[in-house]
Amino acid sequence: QEKVTPRVGARYRSGDHLLVRAVYQDWIRPLGTSTLGPVATAGIAMDDRLVARGGRQKRARGQLELESGRTYGTLYYDWKEMDNLRYSVEPFFITEDENLYKLRNFDYGQLSAEDLYEFISPPTFDGARITIAGASLDRIVTRTVSMRLRYEYTESPKTAETFSGNRIPHLPSHAFSPSFTYMGPMRVYATFRGVYRTERFN
């Protein structure tokens, strides 16, 4: 069965300090691993962490980026609607590519890593509607130290008949992450990252 799943995006830059991005992404996750690298639309990468194999995700995101000297700020609103088309019995796939795929978002050396939830295996659910409002602030403090602050508010009600309205496991309502990077003159590179989350359903 043929399906059309469009991805469209636009970006607008005002001067040297303001950038606006807006995207719509409609995507069906293949049964196998398609790529380990990010696939982006207008500079916004696909977020495929919660979509099951064969499931479909519709996503819209607006993002505002500001730059002033050594300070960089981002505001964003993210909406996703997922239909995971779950089987009565979950199909079993395990490959070396799949194991690498699970570790893709665990780059602790990169302070702007996408993941604040830190789960290896994603939760299973039939369908859900997820909205995220977030902000991040990056600052080059000195020649050797930089910092990043990030906050996200998440709503994730299930939309399928089973447990409709319940939250998706592992997704807290509030998540906050302060992080720092040190790059010394003696080839020393260190990152420090903490994550605070409100209570979440496991």
Write a brief caption for the model.
Strands 1, 2, 5, 6, 7, 8, 9, 10 and 11 form a 9-stranded antiparallel beta sheet that branches. Strands 3-4 form a two-stranded antiparallel ribbon.
* Portion in strands: over 45%
The total count of strands amounts to 11
**Sheet having the most strands:** 9 strands, antiparallel
Estimate the mean pLDDT confidence: 82
Helix and strand sequence: EEEEEEHEEEEE
Radius of gyration, Cα only, in angstroms? Answer: 18 Å
- Figure out the total of helices: 1
Helix content: under 10%
Q: Unreliable stretches, pLDDT < 50, 5 or more residues?
A: none
Distance between the termini: 36 Å
Envelope shape:
globular
Based on secondary structure, the structural category is mainly beta
